[in-house]
Amino acid sequence: MAETSSVRITCTAPVNIAIIKYWGKRDEELILPLNSSLSISLHQDQLKSTTTAVASPAFSEDKLWLNGQEKSVQESRLQALLHEVRRRAAKRPLEDVQREEEVVESVNSEHRLAPPSWHVHISSKNNFPTGAGLASSASGYACLAFTLAQLFGVRGELSGIARRGSGSACRSMYGGVVRWTHGEQADGADSIAVQVIPESYWPELRVFILVVSDLQKAVSSSEGMRRSVATSRLLQHRATVLVPELLRKAEAAVKAHDFPAFSQLAMCDSNQLHAICLDTHPPIFYLNDTSRQIMRLVHAYNQACAEIRQILQYSSCEHHISRDMLHSHSRDSTFDVLFLLSQQWWRPSISDMRSGPSLWTHLELLIQSVILPCSPNYLLMECKANSNPGLLTSFIHSHRQRGS
Amino acid sequence: MAETSSVRITCTAPVNIAIIKYWGKRDEELILPLNSSLSISLHQDQLKSTTTAVASPAFSEDKLWLNGQEKSVQESRLQALLHEVRRRAAKRPLEDVQREEEVVESVNSEHRLAPPSWHVHISSKNNFPTGAGLASSASGYACLAFTLAQLFGVRGELSGIARRGSGSACRSMYGGVVRWTHGEQADGADSIAVQVIPESYWPELRVFILVVSDLQKAVSSSEGMRRSVATSRLLQHRATVLVPELLRKAEAAVKAHDFPAFSQLAMCDSNQLHAICLDTHPPIFYLNDTSRQIMRLVHAYNQACAEIRAGYTFDAGPNAFVLTTARDASKLLGLIAHFFPPQTSNSKRYIRGLPLTTDPPSLELQCALGFEPQPNALHYILCTRPGPGPQCIFDNEAHLLNIDGLPGN
């Protein structure tokens, strides 16, 4: 290997949100799960971890900075990950390493490989606030695994390295929709992530993360799932009997762009996870009253849409509602939901909304397509049940005054 | 049968709280459950339904008053119960009826049997407020079944009649700890309640009912369990695989006076019920933030004692049924009153029922629990214990209907 003072790599990795949940390990040390899981990797424009790793023969020890603060590297999962990536790097035949180095060197003189024996300095940060309850261990460990793999020249299947840091981190090793297969082998070699669809396959999907104010300190997921494995009699049944079927259905829904089916599976699996937490002893509560209000709003919204669609379909002949308007209503629920959510909790001025002034016009059109054929009292009743009664009433009122 | 203008009977029956829960039916019409269940009948000094039934050849139709208000008798479950008790009464051999009548007449000239063909006027009331979320269908239907059985002379196994009104009502047909066996037969003849222990067997048990303030209107348990049966994949597993074992353990714990084991089973089964509700689609939430705070308090108390001295169970609503024994009653009550203090205006009626002292918690215990007192979280606390099954009342002042079958005495 050529003499160099140091090698430096910087990478980013996404956060992921599980749709079919991982909850419970069959092996604590290797982090092998009881069941397979499925997730969506979220866009790095909004959420990502960034990691820089520098390897040098001059370093006497590994060092770590997280969000600017130096931390100990002696944490067991971090050690397991570091050990694993170095182990795989050391396994590479020497000729492979040399051949690759030549290729890499010609591309970018800084982008050389480091021998796994060199110590590393690592710095990682997130572009989203910690302590807002947004889990960063998945993106953080995935980023670390990926960065070090680039640094030491480890190629091929990398999710197994990320998994040693945090189970869900292996799913952040791919974009789009990702499955973490639970695997059969005791050494965990087959407990890896695979991409189900790339992000380009279903670009219409949207995810709103509602960050809820919460005073209660939550039980960590590692501790929580350990308690569930030890005490929940329903968990085994879920893991062995129920999840394989749910996973199959969820993947089929994704491949078919079937949002209603996908969404229902997501809601049911989220609820089943929290049911397992309640079936744990002592019971674990992650959802609070606001979480439940959000769930009620979603159910009420779906119910309202189904009813409105029915009404629209029956009235379409009578009121000459174009097919386009019907179609645009069912597809652009993004703005509907944003609007309803904002009325419930937030009430910003329209300029506060990220989507800007065009949102308002679009909303108006959307509501217009919905309100016109229905009796206004109908929409009013639905909203009264679920959100602040004053606000949507005033919107409808002012809209109608504008001479619709 | 002797000529009489009317026959009048008044009885009372207890409320019961399930320890191993009933949730889900295998037959909606006959009210047959997916699994067996276990409950404690609570003492009638604190909670009971009272029913007066008057039968007369002069009545042209059945009539019903609930808590003083006339109601329709056309409700399907009420009809099923009335029909069942009359059917059983009609089956009795005539000599049996006549022989019994002679015996009964000599005891109390008013306490005669009525032929099931006579119409009845029924009046029922509870000694606890409705709308405080305390389920009265169990005590109400049990009382009705028992009263009509006395009136028409139906003897033997009576819980199956109560069951036609409301599943959990069959467990209120006995005192102490009661099991409702789920049964195998399609006609439900073996889906009946049996007494596991009488109330005198474990007199130290105490139950504190914490009546929680709640704005949310809860889904009824009939509707809730129907939804769970339709959508929860975990429910079948619970009913067929898990409950039989839990029931066996709970009965063993009761017979051994093993409070820690009993209490833990109660907490776990309550939580599993609510887990099933969350696994239902759309999900059902019966517990609110106060319910959860109470659960935390109980866990923290047990932790601080390094032993299970308290337990809890919740039905289809936010009210907590906190379990303990006489030894810890005052201490636990003091702890609850400290962390869930009354609004100052109603502090006199805040702790009701059994006359217990409240031991204020030590500073050490307060810190160990580590949360802030929450005033206004509870409406009141009712202290009770296991109690007897349905009783006939011979006190003339207790009747809710006069001898002509109208409200008043």
Automatic annotation (TrEMBL), chain A:
Reaction catalysed? (R)-5-diphosphomevalonate + ATP = isopentenyl diphosphate + ADP + phosphate + CO2
* Protein's GO biological process: cholesterol biosynthetic process; isopentenyl diphosphate biosynthetic process, mevalonate pathway
Family (UniProt): Belongs to the diphosphomevalonate decarboxylase family.
GO molecular-function terms, A-Z: ATP binding; diphosphomevalonate decarboxylase activity
Q: Which domain of life is it from?
A: Eukaryota
Its GO CC terms are: cytosol
What the protein does comes down to: Catalyzes the ATP dependent decarboxylation of (R)-5-diphosphomevalonate to form isopentenyl diphosphate (IPP). Functions in the mevalonate (MVA) pathway leading to isopentenyl diphosphate (IPP), a key precursor for the biosynthesis of isoprenoids and sterol synthesis.
Q: What is its EC number?
A: 4.1.1.33
Where's the Mvd1 C-terminal domain? Answer: 207-309
Q: Which residues form the Diphosphomevalonate decarboxylase-like N-terminal domain?
A: 13-193
Q: Name one Pfam family in it.
A: MVD-like_N
Give the pathway: Steroid biosynthesis; cholesterol biosynthesis
What is the protein name given in its UniProt record?
Diphosphomevalonate decarboxylase
Which InterPro entries does the record match to this protein?
GHMP_kinase_C_sf, Mev_diP_decarb, MVD-like_N, Mvd1_C, Ribosomal_Su5_D2-typ_SF, Ribsml_uS5_D2-typ_fold_subgr
Q: Which UniProt key words apply to this protein? A: ATP-binding, Cholesterol biosynthesis, Cholesterol metabolism, Lipid biosynthesis, Lipid metabolism, Lyase, Nucleotide-binding, Steroid biosynthesis, Steroid metabolism, Sterol biosynthesis, Sterol metabolism
TrEMBL record, chain B:
**Top-level taxon of origin:** Eukaryota
InterPro entries attached here? GHMP_kinase_C_sf, Mev_decarb, Mev_diP_decarb, MVD-like_N, Mvd1_C, Ribosomal_Su5_D2-typ_SF, Ribsml_uS5_D2-typ_fold_subgr
GO MF annotations, alphabetized: ATP binding; diphosphomevalonate decarboxylase activity
Keywords assigned by UniProt, alphabetized = ATP-binding, Cholesterol biosynthesis, Cholesterol metabolism, Lipid biosynthesis, Lipid metabolism, Lyase, Nucleotide-binding, Steroid biosynthesis, Steroid metabolism, Sterol biosynthesis, Sterol metabolism
Query: Tell me, what is an example of a GO biological process annotation in this record?
Result: isopentenyl diphosphate biosynthetic process, mevalonate pathway
Which pathway does it serve? Steroid biosynthesis; cholesterol biosynthesis
Q: Does the keyword Nucleotide-binding apply?
A: yes
Q: Which residues form a coiled coil?
A: none
Q: SUPFAM superfamilies per the record? A: GHMP Kinase, C-terminal domain (SSF55060), Ribosomal protein S5 domain 2-like (SSF54211)
Q: What class of enzyme is it?
A: lyase
Q: Spell out the reaction equation it catalyses.
A: (R)-5-diphosphomevalonate + ATP = isopentenyl diphosphate + ADP + phosphate + CO2
Which EC numbers does the record give? 4.1.1.33
* Diphosphomevalonate decarboxylase-like N-terminal domain segment(s): 13-193
Q: Which residues form the Mvd1 C-terminal domain?
A: 207-392
Q: Name one GO cellular component term.
A: cytosol
The family line of this record is: Belongs to the diphosphomevalonate decarboxylase family.
What this chain does, per the entry, is described as: Catalyzes the ATP dependent decarboxylation of (R)-5-diphosphomevalonate to form isopentenyl diphosphate (IPP). Functions in the mevalonate (MVA) pathway leading to isopentenyl diphosphate (IPP), a key precursor for the biosynthesis of isoprenoids and sterol synthesis.
What is the name listed in the Swiss-Prot or TrEMBL entry for this protein?
Answer: Diphosphomevalonate decarboxylase
